[in-house]
Amino acid sequence: MFRRKANRIAELERVVARVQRRLDEANERLAEIGGFEYEKVRRQVEGLRAEAERVLRERLAAKLRFEAELAERKTAQVVALAHARAAVEAELGDVRRQIAEARQELRQLEERDGLARPESLRPLPPLPRDGEAEAGKPPLPRDGEAEVGRPPLPRDGEAEVGRAPQEEGAGRRPLPEVAEQARRVVEREGQKAEG
């Protein structure tokens, strides 16, 4: 009885040892397989990381080149604008200097020759209002009234005092002559007012 149990225990121990040995072998195989796969995956990851770093460096270099080219173009534009502005300012200064010299020469000519402003540039004297008199002159007569110290003006068809009536159109001066005389009177009055 005891011997049977001992044999049974020994047999079970042998079975357990055999199973344990198989488990150990299986674990070793799994470790080898797992290690190989891990190494393979690790190499793939390192390759991908190196590729990513290479792409990143290339993009960074391209960005730096673009920024450098952009800065160079902006610098060239700034320099060109500065040169253009300096040229325009120099030309403008030359034009201003020529204008100042021309004005100075004109003033010197006027002072040397005693030239006054042209008649067309002189201000015209203000015209008197209706019924007002100029300085030192009697007021203008209204229609039908006579000036001071003169007989009243004759109406159409009437004769002046001491003169015989004239026929219509007789003795009248042409309109151009009257207009020219009126212009001379206005110029003479303007010169008197300025004097």
TrEMBL record:
Keywords: Coiled coil. Residues 110-195 are annotated as: Disordered. The keyword Coiled coil applies. Residues 110-120, 129-195 have a biased composition (Basic and acidic residues). Residues 2-58 form a coiled coil. It comes from the Bacteria. This is Uncharacterized protein. It comes from Umezawaea tangerina.
